[in-house]
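QA checklist item 7 of 12: single-chain prediction sanity check.
[x] sequence parsed
[x] length recorded as 135
[x] structure emitted
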Amino acid sequence: MNEPDTQSPAPEPAHHETRFRLVWQVLLFQFKLAADGLRDLLLVPVSLGAGILGLLVGGDEPDQYFRRLQRFGRRTDLWINLFGQYRHGPTSDKFVKPLEESVYQTYRRKWPRNTPAVAEKPPEELEADEPTRDS
C-alpha cells in the first residue's frame, strides 16, 4: 500500500513574496485614493465658499482666499503622493513606512521559506530561526 506523504510541504515559489508586495501596494493605493477623494470632496464646498467670500469681502485681492485654498490643495497633494512621484519632503509613504516594515517582518517570520535570504539556508538553520510560541 502507498503510505501518505509525511514530508513537510515544499516552500512556496519566490514569486510569493512578489505577490505579497503587490497586495501591500494595492492596499496602500486604495488608502491614498480614499484620502485623495475625501480631500476633493471637502474642497468642493470650501472652494465655493472661498470664491464667494473673496467676492464679498476680498477688497483689492478678491482671490486671496481661493489662492490659500489652492496652496493647501498642493500641500495635501504632495503629502498624499497618490502615484509615488514625490521622493522628498513629508509624504504619506514616509508616514506608512514603519507599518509596511512591521507587516513585512511579520510575513518573513511566519513564512520564512518564502523569502530569498532564508531560502538559501539549510533546513537545520531554518528550524532554529522559527519563532517559538513564547516569542
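[x] summary fact logged: The chain has one domain: 15-110.
[ ] second reviewer sign-off
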